Here is the input.
Amino acid sequence: MSIQLTLAARYLMGRKLRTVLTTLAVVFGVFVIFGMNILLPTLLDAFTNNIRAASKQVDVTITHNTGEAFALTQLRKVRAIAGVSTAAGSLNRTVNIPSNFFARSQVSALTLIGLDPHAAQSVHDYPLKAGRFLRSDDENAALITTSLAELVALSLGDTLRLPTAEGTVKLSLVGLLPARALPGNEEVLVTLGKAQKMLDLPDRINTIEANFDTSDPARRDALQSAIQDELGKDYHLGALSSGSELITSIQTGQAAFNLFGFLALFMGGFIIFNTFRTVVAERRHDIGMLRAIGASRRTIITLFLSEGILQGVIGTAVGMALGYLMGASLIALGSGVYEQFLHLKVGSPVVDPKLIALTLTLGIGVTLVAGLLPAFGASRITPLEALRPSVADAEFSRTFRIRTIVGALLIAAAMLGLLTHNISYVALGGLALLIGLVLVAPALVTPIANAFGGLIALAFAREGTGRLAQGNITRQPSRAAVTASATMIGLAIVVAAAGVTTSITGGFLSVLQKSLGSDYLLMPPSVGIWASNVGASQALAERLRAVRGVAAVSTMRFAQASIGDSAISLLGIDPVTFPQVSALNFQSGEAATAYPQLAVDRTLIVNGPLAALTKLNMGDDVNLSTPEGVQTYRVVAVASDYLNSKIATAYTSQANLKTDFHKSDDIFIQLNLAPDADRAGVEAKLKAIVADYPQFNLTSGQAYFEENKQIFDATFATLYILLAVMALPSLIALLNTLAIGVIERTREIGMLRAIGATQSQVRSMVMAEALLLAAIGTAFGLLAGLYLGYVMVLGLSASGFPVEYSFPLAGLVAATAAGLIFGVVAALLPARQASRMDIIRALQYE
Here is the structure.
């Protein structure tokens, strides 16, 4: 094995340009996969730290599966269990802080903890740095940490302001706790009664912490089982759950980037396969000499696979290093955003050992798999056959014809799958189309090259080099097809993404205009992820309705619920006022009947993601886990809005939310003005009212629409730049093929130069060849991209995001331009290399 590795290393070092180009393909795919898979574990680690920071070590922490508050009677049940030495109930809630709320600090979130002072101290130790602990009769007192006191520039005896459901509340600081030792939101401790008033949750708690009177493991397990039996399966024993909606979004984004990374590695496999096939043809004489002196087939196979292993190891190592730098950079650059908007203090990058193993397997495995066929082909060459002058391959061999027929059948199957409009068949059709195009590509190279060759010949008519370039490509159609396939995948990504973004932009902006088209919106700090927003009592909505010129006011309320093991967002709306200021986008059912049915019994409107997750349809009954036990609701429609389009969400009446979840605070408010209202005068009055509730930001519906449109435009502009980067392997494939072609045709180029061809003509020949290859790959890429884009849009609809496909004309133009530009750029270095060839040495080349 050592001799094979030595020979492989020497050969790779002797072909530095080819080795670098081939290895870059592996580097790029590994770079994307490894870098993006660092981000999610790091954020999950931050979530875990936040949860641990919020939940101090006790024997057991009890919460409701939905995360919602529950009755104090549950605490009494826990205390009554023999073996529970102490138990304390608390009301814990993350409070989003509006920007610039604290004049001297950018604190974006705090954790409000309401507790029973006596019971809490029996469960936890609260060492004080200054002042005293809370007392049961404290009405407006609070404890904070010294670190928070420094952040907001307050000291013992000062007043701390907080946004709450009853407006801004002023709390007197009676004690200071030590600075936090773990990452997480800073805590504000108040009495339980005060927290219940501030959050509009009278007589409710959401956490029970208990300690046991034994350290025996078996006895402790028995006590946990007894608590679970007493409270029922709707309660969770362990740590608090947090951030499930955000984690789902992160995982979706990560899956998309993984797809791009796998496609990049797939293109890398094409490049390596193409390179090794050429290497086998180029080294026939060397292989024959090795076989003649006794080298076995196994030795030849091992030699070529050794080259693949060396390139795979180097490419994977470099890709992982660059991927780590990218992941660490994204985390470092985004840490401020995570802390401000997601309330996460993100630590150092987390690298999962499984990720390292997976990346090594993919990176090295791709090179080995790509090199297998050429290696076996090389081993089958007999010494006598190899030492003869090489003969052109019979391109229309039996294998070639079979491959073409199979490819054509796969393309036909893809077209049939497209006609079904079934996501499963269409998705399989997308895969069949890609494989089919790869298989039929060699047979299509000659007719496509002839078609484009005429245009190329016109462009290079004076030199006559266009026909030479056309002949070079059609002489090796298999190699041209492999290069075109790599280009096809790169441009297919761009075209598919263009189709998706064009469709999403039109669809989502339409839904945005429909659901948030009211005259004014009262927006909380965190939109969509509602759990950490502090709402307002009904007094705010009543004050808004009392303003002269306000025609309609509708509020939205929030609760966390679950269907089986699936956590969902439950939004409470007023069936009468909601349609006056907003509208859902219905996929099943009608607004005229759905809204009135919400006011009758327990009914739900579920959105697309929830319907896809739980397989719910209009008319189905569903068991919803609530703090009052499992309740049966009936689905009356499937419809979505803009703010909750990515999260599994259901809409019900505010009466149901009050009955089953005891939630009555408004977390989002919309209002419309009367036709004859003085807009400027009304707006001034609204701003004065909202000033008492700093957790809300008053904005006009039109301004919010324009702001989101700009975000869409900026996001998709960034996405196109990213997709252009993702298409780089196709540039590497072109560059690699052209460089190999120049090396392989060294003597031919020398002959052309010897009979009078100028450097300019040689450069033009290579340039024309590159444009032909790019044109073939672009044609394949446009066709594949249109199909894949339709698959993705159909997949979004099947996943609960109702989007209609829009033809991406701009994306097609951009992809065509990118493909041809890639051809020109890829030709620069090989063309320069060919034109500067020494004629004497070129004629002596073997």
Confidence is low (pLDDT under 50) at residues 51-55, 239-246, 390-396.
